[in-house]
Sequence to fold (217 residues):
Amino acid sequence: GDISAVRRAILAECPPSLGTVPIYQAAIQAIKESGAIVSMTADGIFDCIEEQARDGVDFMTVHCGVTRQVVSRLKNEGRVVDVVSRGGAFFIGWMLHHEQENPLYEQYDRLLELAHEYDFTLSLGDGLRPGGIADATDRAQLEELLTLGELVERAREAGVQSMVEGPGHVPLNQIVANVQLQKRVCKEAPFYVLGPLVTDIAPGYDHITAAIGGAIA
Fold:
């Protein structure tokens, strides 16, 4: 449907903070216009971000840490489940197709300028979060986290608020380490906890497996 109209209707009725993932809209627009997600352009992605900012969105998930270096780590890692982040998959597909760097990373200062102008928070998305506990805390995940830590500092220098998403599927005995690592690397930035999901064998019961992981986190 009309994504912009739906978003504006929700914003009009939603007093609490509202967050979005602008790459979803950019991807759908690319499909409508050219038939493929990889036909997105950097300007098209930033146009979606600015449109949502003008509408009054409070925070946006932006997959700035999915870089070419992170993707090379992923290729060498041999994961059981490669990429489960939808936004992360969109960016990786785009980068591999065009053999170019992620525009949100390459033009991060442009993103910071928009965030500062429209006063929205960056939710630094974890495009390489593990989708199975066998892949938890691997080099691809940690490489992205190190990048996000640097981007948190750049956001603070620009007067922009940020938080960091993660960690996804993580076994019980790695949750504390993941939280402590994020807090250390990202200089105490708020951790927007996804899960952690402590098992892969309870489909349909994520509200329970995530509650266990969230309580420990």
About this structure: Residues 134 and 171 are 8 Å apart (CA to CA).
